Amino acid sequence: MSTTRREIAAPHWLVQLLRSTPVPIPWNMVARAVVALAVPLAVGYALGDIGVGALVSTGALPTVLSESAGPYRYRARRLGGATAAAGLGYFAGLITGGIPAASIPVVVGVAAVSALISAAGSNASVAGLQMFVFYVLGTGQHVTGLRVEVLLGYFCAGAAWSLLIALATWTFRATSPERGAVAHVYVELAAMLSATDEATSRVARHQLTTAMNTAYDRLLTARSWLSGRDATYRQLLNLLSASTPAVEASVAMVNAGRRAPDDVIDHFIATSAAVLANQELPEPPEAPEDADPVLAALYAGLARIGKGDNRKRREIQPWHKRLRGWAGSLVSGPLTWFAALRLTLCVAIAEVVALLVPFERSYWITLTVGIVLKPDFGSVFGRAVLRGIGTVIGVGIGAAVLAAGGEGWLLVLLIAVFAGGVAVGKVRNYGILSAFVTPLIILQMDLASTGSWDVVLARLVDTVLGCAIVLLFGYLLWPGSRRPQVGGRLADSLDSLVRYVDKGLVLAPSGEARLERSRARRRAYRALADLRTAFQQVVVEPSAAGRQAVAWWPVIAGLERVADAVTEVGVTLGRGAPAPGEADIALLTAALAELAAAVREERDPAEMPMPDSAQLSGVVDQIGAAFDAVRGPDLVERAPLRLVRRFLPYHRRA
């Protein structure tokens, strides 16, 4: 088996690396990016100074690069923090630019800070990246000859403009993102129940898990920052919570290989439309008299949706507790320190190389290193390769612009096209993002003032050098960078699955017990979804890490089937099916715990007794398949995990 996996690993990682994420084009984000970046350039050209327009457009970049879907309050905090951090970095770059004795130690320090604050969450991570990027860009602005306060003023004007564009629709679309996220859950339910084969239904189930995670994240994030007028958010959250029985019954039906009746699928579609339009929910269809336990549970779940659940309000966490949690993650999370050390080392090397390269404004080397090596963004190898490929394409586009004599309104049009490409690349593929952001920044910061072919050549050489530094010092020579890490996350997912088995196979007579079972199910599916994401990040590497990810894939798929089998049994409880005995449940949890221990200890799992119960036969079969999958891959592919085992607490928090 391992030989076969080694044979397919090389072409597999290349295919995964170049694959685009199949998500819809975010046309709203595309429109905002075009307006934010192209309008300042157009106004500057109309007033006779396109260079000033380009500088103002540069100030709009942090918002465009940090844009993401989500609640408006969340987006305001995310974009505001990223823009403020970018402005601080830009100002520091303007002050120290042109003075290597000052800029080199400062940029190394900024790199370290940006890496460390990433442990505070996704918003802090984005802010740290923008601070680093715009510090580096700011160091190259001294050649314009403009005063620091003038350059900073142009930047702030662009930043204010882009924030206005990003949040302009708040007043009449305040809850639209959350409402759309809840409605999308019902669309995915209908899609899953409409699937005609196992492969399609499996993909649909993954999309349903993602949709539910997104909806809960958006609603809980929004409500945590509301002080009183949260009736709409409370209604949506109660509606989503009340959908849990329908979700569980739907998963159980798909796991049993059955297709739901058409009236159920139509009801989910109608419910989605009603939620999106903020209208009254449709009446659920009546269950047939001869419905079996799973089908009866599905119809009962439909009736439950309109009733809603009453959830307690989430308490706002004080800022000092959040700060304490971040500090604790730094103390007990050595991977954050290793990532910061790797970033600062490679940035220092890039700064030295920039002094030796015979090109003016070679800050692009350092910029490339920082963007590729920024922590928590996936595979270093994959990002370096995609950055190089995307930049070569982007430089080719820039060369074509120069060859066509691009200026004036043509330049404005090209900025608009590149801005839209950046918005698409952010959600589709990092290589696409690089292919558009490279000519965008070249036009904004170089061609608008110089229009030289030398700029294109310099950007190409600088990017190649930056990627080479990352691949050599940040990947090939960096200790542990090519070691497998999927196994440690796999063991953590098994722990979540053990807790779900313990809660999901018992009767839940009270509302609190049902809520606890629902939470255990969501945590298990979320852990498996996160595991799948980690796999997709690592599988692009042609190293032991990538080979191990491929070797572990049957186990990941097997655990998802175990979770579905548990859900199927849990749905039947209380509807004519008795609860499994405590001894049988203990055997299942012991078997999964042994599987987790075997993964952590780098050994084959021991033979475990399993319950002899027709009711649990589906769960037993899937656990047996998972045991076979763990024994299948060669130990060479699965080891070593010792480094990961030392950092497991960090992984659990991440």
UniProtKB/TrEMBL annotation:
Main location: membrane
UniProt key word Transmembrane helix: yes
Keywords: Cell membrane, Membrane, Transmembrane, Transmembrane helix
Residue stretches making up the Peptidase A2 domain: 52-89
Transmembrane segments: 79-102, 108-138, 150-172, 335-359, 380-402, 408-425, 432-450, 456-478
Gene Ontology molecular-function annotations: aspartic-type endopeptidase activity
Membrane topology: Multi-pass membrane protein
Any one of the GO BP annotations: proteolysis
Domain of life: Bacteria
Subcellular location: Cell membrane
Gene Ontology cellular component list: plasma membrane
Family indicated by similarity: Belongs to the YccS/YhfK family.
Protein name listed in UniProt: Integral membrane protein
Native organism: Amycolatopsis decaplanina DSM 44594
